[in-house]
Design goal:
The complex is a heterodimer of chains A (236) and B (373). With 236 residues, chain A is of the alpha/beta class. Chain A has one domain: Rossmann fold (3-Layer(aba) Sandwich), CATH 3.40.50. Chain A has 10 helices and 10 strands. Chain A has a 6-stranded mixed β-sheet with strand order 6-7-8-3-9-10, sandwiched between helices. A 4-stranded antiparallel β-sheet of chain A has the order 2-1-4-5, covered by helices on one side. Chain A is globular and about 45 Å long. Chain B is mainly alpha-helical and 373 residues long. Among the domains of chain B are: 220 residues, no CATH class; 31 residues. Chain B has a two-stranded antiparallel ribbon with strand order 1-4. Chain B has a two-stranded antiparallel sheet with strand order 2-3. In chain B, a hairpin with a 2-residue loop joins strand 2 and strand 3. The two termini of chain B are 25 Å apart. The N terminus and C terminus of chain B are likely disordered. Classes of the chains: A alpha/beta (236), B mainly alpha (373). Chains A and B meet through helix 2, strand 6, helix 3 and helix 6 of A and helix 8 and helix 9 of B.
Amino acid sequence: MAMLEFENVEVFYGKIQALRGITVRVEEGEIVSLLGNNGAGKTTTLSAASAIVKSHAGRISFAGQEITKAKPWEVVAAGLIHVPEGRRIFSTLSVMENLQLGGYLVKDRGAVQKRIADVLELLPLLAERRNQQGGTLSGGEQQMLAIGRALIAGPKMLMLDEPSMGLAPLIVAQVMQVIKEVNANGTTVLLVEQNARAALKITSRGYVIESGVTTLTGTGSELLADSRIVEAYLGA
Amino acid sequence: MSENVDSSTAPRLIGKPASVVSRLFESKQLGWAGFAIAVIFPFLVANNYAMNIATTAVIFILLASGLNIVVGYCGLLDLGYIAFMAVGAYTAGIVSKAWELPILFTIPAVLLMTVLAGLIIGAPTLRLRSDYLAIVTLGFGEIIRLTANNLTITGGPSGIYGIPGVELFGLDLSSPVMFYFFCVVVVSLLVLGSARLGKSRLGRAWRFVREDEDAAEAMGIHTYKVKLAAYIFGAMWGGIGGMLFAAHLSAISPQSFVFLQSALVLMAVVLGGMGNTRGVVVGAVVISLLPEFLRDMGNLRYVIFGVVLIAVMVLRPQGFWPTRAYEPEKAGPDRDGHDQDDGGSGPGAHGRKRSRREHRKVTSSGQERGENA
């Protein structure tokens, strides 16, 4: 059974159709990446799954449950967490408070404490800066914080929207390493990336989206070798 | 949003050893000190005029702490807050006059009506954001006032008079001093309540919504419900304020609920420091008492009042007493302060510079933080 499945999902922003039939399947334990140009519909695909935008047609299911018509908090409660583009951490709140937000829907306080401890172990940088305001962190640290915050909710699956945005190559590699570790600990990951080379290195499979349709799919190494991908995203 | 960090607040090092003054300002006993001052006050100055002003100030504190829930905690700009006070005052006045009830017996009706009013304005308008919400609340404030001005049950432009004073267990509390004490007790409890609310799980959700509504929603917060809750709490605080106001003056009319009043309450919240109950109380006291102290100036007093407000906002844009951007850790001593001191890199060096500046500021003005100087 697929962890997350999109079947012919269509989304409109007013009259503009952003998704024209997206079909993506993520199996449990995988890292799957969505590639595509600006405006192809990658972010919209994630937003449709987390119910921040409404799907007009098609079906989205998560862990065997249909979530096409669910509300954002129901999706979060089901264990599907969206880490939005641009990190969106709370810049005037401390690192600790940012992490606590992740546990907002978790009733068991002990579990939240334990997960915070786990995240601080996974991301020791955050432990050092726990009392600092989120906005004072560097871009890479903010991205780590955004991922850490999502982990506090105890997700079955993470959807990461451009975690490498605006980061130096070395930091991108670190972020990708963290994503790999998160995945190794049992969390399925759907990764949206412009940085195709970095993303495909850690992903099991990838999809290419063009103008709101999935056009290509294959394993990470297949896509890296595909001449069309090389032309479009990697440069000759 | 994370990129747009306000540089005036951003590099604030946290976990610095606090100076004596700032530690005093963070003290938990401060609330008791404020309460004690309020209780002792009538023993120092007990003429009717002073009692009248002081009671008005205490009611004003209640309004400001109610609006603080909406604007300070949740970040919803409400320009028609006085409407909730009007609803409370009119409900108390009409119910107590119609059934000849003691005014405290109108509390259930007051709460019911203000919650209803909160729902009626909140439910359709809280889907709007920022500026649009402000405009709608401004309109709502005027609608309530004009409605009161034109209905027969509210007494039209002349309003309602002869509203009974407060009576508790057969004890008449309507003398100025007794009523003042009554207000101090009620308002203290409600101010304490609003401070506790701010620290609760709901309060935390309010802060997340204020900081970034989309991110809060993506993390599973039912933003609409959370915002509506802030509105309803704010409305209840305003309603109780209205009831006290009606009991205090024994007469209410639409002129008491003009836009200027909403603006003054908002001013108290902004001036004091949005989101920080202590700051808001200080702001409310200043806003309600300053015009009285300036009374000798005659017509100039509102000019001076305005200049003082502008000066404060220029010098301290976050208010007298801004909210702390972090919660102190409950368990264990502060290990990070140490780390950050040792780190010879940017933040540490900056921190040292800052603390010196802070120290200077503290000694010169006796205020807690100097980042906005």
